[in-house]
Amino acid sequence: MLNNEKINDLSNKIREILNNSPVLDLQNNINALLKGAFTKMELISREEYDVQAEVLRNTKKKLELIEAKLAALEADLTSRPTHKI
Length: 85
Prior knowledge:
mainly alpha
């Protein structure tokens, strides 16, 4: 059976090989490519989406209140008798 020293030595050698290989560069390039693509697609985070959805809900409620007030004002105006001078 392998002892801990040999396992650690093997692990260190593998880590050293990977650090000196183009795999790390490839990973960095892929990350940069994906970030660029997501930026071009104008994607937003879930948190930002939730904030905007809440703003939209509040705006919709305010609009409904304004529409109800407008309807009441219009009804009041049409129910008033017209006076001719």
